[in-house]
TrEMBL record:
SUPFAM superfamilies, per the entry: (Trans)glycosidases
Name assigned to this protein: Glycoside hydrolase family 1 protein
Entry's Gene Ontology cellular component terms: cytosol
Pfam family, one: Glyco_hydro_1
Record keyword Metal-binding present: no
Membership in a protein family: Belongs to the glycosyl hydrolase 1 family.
Superkingdom assignment: Bacteria
GO molecular function: beta-glucosidase activity
Location of the active site: E370 (nucleophile)
Source taxonomy: Bacteria, Bacillati, Bacillota, Erysipelotrichia, Erysipelotrichales
Amino acid sequence: MLHKNLKPFPQTFLWGASTSAYQVEGANLIDGKGPSCQDVKQVPEGTSDLTVCADHYHRYKEDIALMAEMGFKAYRFSISWSRILPEGTGDVNPKGIEFYNNLINECLSHNIQPIITMFHFDMPAKLDERGSWSNRESVDWFVNFARILFENYGDRVKYWLTINEQNVLTLSGPVIGTLHIPEGCTNELKEIYQQNHHMLVAQAKAMALCHELLPDAKIGPAPNISLVYPASCKPEDVQAAQNFNALRNWLYLDMSVYGVYNNLVWAYLEEHDACPEFMPGDEEALKSGHPDFIGFNYYNTATVAASDGTEISDVHADQQNAQGIAGLYRAFRNPNLPKTEFGWEIDPMGFRATIREMYSRYRLPMIVTENGLGAYDKLTEDGKVHDSYRIKYLRDHIEQVQLAITDGCEMLGYCPWSALDLISTHEGMVKRYGFIYVDRDEFDLKTLDRYRKDSFYWYKKVIASNGSDL
Ligand code: BG6
């Protein structure tokens, strides 16, 4: 739809950016923090471990000051579960509580709203040993952790996100080092969707608890949503797109918003004898969640064609590159879209299409919790990073958010990935996303000094003009 007049971004729009604890903090085994599954996993060859990351744990004041200089209204970060509860359950680590108190207070002192992700790919290692999400007790573990967060930080934190990219955990867990398949498992699909079910119940219970304890706070999920296009107008391709849309996107939002399983996904699971088992009370718990908004990560769309029956399950694909699933869909390279240096397609118009589709399905306000471009940035000798490619990516995407607002979609904020450079999920330090450059290499920690990239100055101008000067 062409609009003659664009609607402005709301005055209260939450401009900011995102990080996650295990990718940015470092200090992964100090001040009482227990290891998480990320600390004990096999680090991909040639990439750094997580002992230092961007050293945000020690430099958060400097980092928040830089965010304030850009004019951030919000900072989305995650809380490391094993920093708060070193064993995942049991004793609380006072130093962990203190660190996030300091981080939250530092944000607030600069008028930056903290948006807290409660779980971002970092199950405490002790709970991983006990089966992680495959263990039914994981529901109680998570709700207990959520209660501790609400009780300690709920007086100051107004925006909460439950589980980052639960759909990626379920569809590509091994790539990000998280999916736990118990030895001797005979039906992997059933096992995966049982774990998914536990996360869904845990999320719904955490949302209900948030509303009970913190009536003024807002809480929502944070899946990775990519609208799926059909490769052609062949009816078979359109159905394949519906299949993958259901499996990748709508399963998660239908459940968080309406508390019901998407019927296409359920039918697929039935076919494979893989439906999750419900425990007494699950049905009611799932219906009791009710998010106040939808947080979602968007990097690009996906395109699929009809399955030819030979595809293999895609748990080893990464977040944005699906392979296909026999009988459901086959991945298709969209010839209309350019790709990043790391092979992810770039589709700003697909961002608007994704937002429109979500709004028409769920009618809830939305916060973009990730969006961004991973690239090999270069620090020049005079301390600059000329990342015009990132500015272009972000500008093109913000334009589409404004078009979606003009279409009538309700948008609360935009927090791209990432506030500062940090360790990628599976491609190490070389894949940078930040507005703030962190001076380190994969293995050489160098100075860890911060540098303002060109995108830093550009984003500052965007925020100062409330999105009117792109
Ligand atoms: C999202 C994750 O999938 O994408 C982040 O929530 C991640 O944790 C981001 O870092 C970018 O992915 P990657 O693999 O390039 O780090």
